[in-house]
């Protein structure tokens, strides 16, 4: 299947981050069009009809989110672009930020018009200082040309955008922790409901949208909902940028219709498994997602297809592992990430992530006994049932799936007191 090249169409064009190049390639036409031809509610309706679902992980319908915000009477309202991109294995937003920043600004301004907001904030972690600089430069260029700021293109719609630098915590990508972080508090998730669409930043209606989600918007405005729905599946229309990493010949970002088969992505686009090795497992939605084995190579990569086989699409970070991978080592690496990123507020996650790492370390160094595998499973299931926020739910999914699918490897480590694959 050819790559549709919609969201990534400007990537690779020289100076694609510059306003004049963006405009030459059709940029800001969608924003001009809505200001001249569409009422805000018509924009919301068009995005609803397109079926666009958020690309940050949860897959919530974007048009519906905008409608909730638009219909709340409180003001001011905020558009927040979630550019945190903290999921291990995801690197698709970074490319859009660095090489197509005006597409993000245009998507945000259209979102602002649709919900009645005059303020946008891009939340990006401080580590991505290069990308933050690109965004800042793009905002300044757009302001000078009247594409953002007061009375955009001479209309009576005003919308300005700021960049907010986060401190770089995985949990701050979760939308409510992100809001607390902007408000100057420690980045920790809020209880939902109330949802940000009604009680968001400073308790005002707020639409938090992922970078890739926003980049879809100008295309939907220009080409319409029917065109958009001609890509992907009925429940997950459009294209998706998959960040493929791990043991493939050609790691990278691939934009393909939602619902593309996993094996097509790996073998046709990402060049197959390195060194002609055998496929062993894949994390289709980054470190937060349960793994899939070769039995599921034909699974469609979309929100529902992956949920149906017990995993998730998340932000589309496809991490491929070949037959040389030690699943205990891979599990430990992921568990260490979550131990580090747990915000520490609730006991099941703070203690659970800590003890899963300690138990996996014991297995790795041959100090473990067989009951300890079940102890990890127990800890994981308890976390799943009792953690306060979605990070705790995500933190054990991959490790439990490794044990579920490759238990013999965990037992092999315990029996042989070393890695049976001699990977360590
Ligand atoms: C632990 C955690 C981390 C998250 N990190 C990100 C992130 O880095 N970027 C992002 O867009 N969404 C992230 N999300 C999802 C956001 O909470 C939210 O659903 C999303 O930004 C909404 O935008 P969308 O509707 O366009 O997907 C994360 C969620 C969780 C639970
Ligand atoms: S599950 Fe609990 S400790 Fe873990 S990140 Fe969420 S609130 Fe913090």
Order of helices and strands: HHHHEHHEHEHEHEEHEEHEHHHHH
Remind me, CATH topology of the largest domain?
A: Rossmann fold
In the CATH classification, which architecture of the largest domain applies?
3-Layer(aba) Sandwich
CATH H level, superfamily name of the largest domain: NADH-ubiquinone oxidoreductase 51kDa subunit
The CATH class of the largest domain: Alpha Beta
Report the C-alpha radius of gyration, rounded.
22 Å
Report on this model:
With 424 residues, this protein is an alpha/beta fold. It folds into 3 domains: 19-229, NADH-ubiquinone oxidoreductase 51kDa subunit (Rossmann fold, 3-Layer(aba) Sandwich), CATH 3.40.50.11540; 239-322, Roll (Ubiquitin-like (UB roll)), CATH 3.10.20; 327-416, NADH-ubiquinone oxidoreductase 51kDa subunit, iron-sulphur binding domain (de novo design (two linked rop proteins), Up-down Bundle), CATH 1.20.1440.230. It is built from 16 helices and 9 strands. It has helices at 19-24, 29-37, 40-50, 62-71, 92-99, 101-115, 129-144, 175-182, 211-229, 262-269, 303-308, 327-341, 347-364, 371-386, 390-395, 397-416; strands at 78-82, 119-125, 160-166, 206-210, 239-246, 252-257, 279-287, 292-293, 317-322. The strands form 2 sheets. Strands 6-5-9-7-8 form a 5-stranded mixed sheet, sandwiched between helices. Helix 6 crosses helix 9, helix 12 (327-341) runs antiparallel to helix 13 (347-364) and helix 12 packs across helix 16. The chain is globular and about 75 Å long. The model has no long low-confidence stretch (mean pLDDT 97). The site of flavin mononucleotide has 22 residues, from strand 4 and helix 15.
């Amino acid at each position: 299947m050819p790559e549709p090249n919609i969201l990534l169409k400007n990537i690779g064009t020289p100076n694609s981050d510059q306003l004049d190049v963006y405009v030459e390639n059709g940029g800001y036409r969608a924003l001009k069009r809505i200001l001249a031809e569409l009422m805000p509610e018509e924009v919301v309706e068009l995005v609803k009809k397109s079926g666009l679902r958020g690309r940050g992980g949860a897959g919530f319908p974007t048009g519906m989110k905008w409608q909730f915000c638009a219909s709340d009477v409180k003001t001011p309202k905020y558009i927040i672009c979630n550019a945190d991109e903290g999921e291990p294995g995801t690197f698709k937003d970074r490319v859009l930020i660095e090489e197509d920043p005006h597409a993000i600004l245009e998507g945000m301004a259209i979102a602002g018009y649709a919900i009645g907001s005059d303020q946008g904030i891009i939340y990006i972690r401080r580590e991505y200082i290069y990308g933050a600089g690109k965004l800042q430069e793009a905002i300044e260029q757009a302001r000078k040309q009247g594409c953002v700021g007061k009375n955009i293109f001479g209309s009576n719609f005003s919308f300005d955008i700021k960049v907010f630098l986060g401190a770089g915590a995985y949990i701050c990508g979760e939308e409510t922790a992100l809001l607390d972080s902007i408000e100057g508090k420690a980045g920790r998730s809020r209880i939902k409901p109330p949802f940000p669409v009604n009680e968001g930043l400073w308790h005002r209606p707020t639409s938090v949208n992922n970078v890739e989600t926003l980049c879809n918007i100008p295309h939907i405005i220009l080409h319409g909902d029917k065109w958009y729905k001609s890509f992907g599946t009925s429940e997950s229309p459009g294209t998706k940028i998959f960040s493929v990493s791990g043991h493939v010949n050609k790691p990278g970002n691939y934009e393909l219709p939602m619902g593309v088969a996993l094996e097509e992505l790996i073998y046709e686009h990402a060049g197959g498994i390195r060194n002609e090795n055998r496929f062993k497992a894949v994390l289709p939605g980054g470190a937060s997602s349960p793994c899939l084995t070769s039995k599921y190579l034909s699974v469609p990569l979309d929100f529902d297809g992956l949920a149906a086989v017990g995993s998730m699409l998340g932000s589309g970070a496809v991490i491929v592992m070949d037959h040389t991978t030690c699943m205990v080592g891979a599990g430990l690496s992921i568990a260490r990430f979550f131990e580090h990123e747990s915000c520490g507020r609730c006991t099941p996650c703070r203690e659970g992530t800590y003890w899963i790492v300690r138990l996996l370390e014991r297995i790795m160094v041959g100090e473990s006994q067989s009951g300890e595998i079940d102890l990890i499973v127990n800890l994981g299931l308890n976390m799943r049932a009792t953690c306060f926020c979605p990070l705790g739910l995500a933190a054990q999914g991959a490790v439990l799936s490794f044990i579920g699918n490759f238990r013999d490897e965990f037992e092999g480590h315990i029996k042989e007191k070393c890695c049976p694959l001699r990977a360590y």
